[in-house]
Write a structure and sequence with these properties.
This protein has 113 residues and is mostly helical. The chain has a domain of 59 residues. Helix content is 59%, strand content 0%. It has two helices and no strands.
């Protein structure tokens, strides 16, 4: 060999072309697949928040109804209240009392009956 350096000329350079390797393609597919699989649980999580709010609202309504029913139970345990309801709603009379005439049909709009 001679002492000369040989120049190696490459063709016109266009810059590096990005190649999609098998590893990169696999990573892209894996990331897209994971993103698609995450959509359903995220949607379910967000839906659960609205369901919880609705259930809490229903619980408050039911607690109010329970409080009213407890008050009604306490009233019905009072013998004077039971007697009032029997006289007004059912037209009953006590022992030894005389009914004031023929039995009338129960009034349609007596409150509390």
């Amino acid at each position: 060999m001679s002492g000369r350096k040989q120049e190696v000329r490459a063709g016109p350079t266009e810059g590096p072309k990005p190649k999609l390797t098998a590893r990169a393609a696999f990573l892209i597919v894996a990331v897209v697949l994971l993103a698609l699989l995450a959509v359903s649980p995220v949607r379910a999580y967000l839906d659960q928040g609205t369901q919880i709010a609705e259930l809490e609202r229903q619980a408050r309504v039911l607690e109010g109804a329970n409080a009213r029913l407890r008050a009604n139970i306490a009233e019905l345990r009072d013998p004077a209240e039971l007697e009032r309801l029997a006289r007004e709603c059912l037209g009953l009379v006590g022992r030894g009392e005389v009914a004031p005439g023929p039995h009338k049909a129960r009034p349609a709009a007596v409150p509390g009956c």
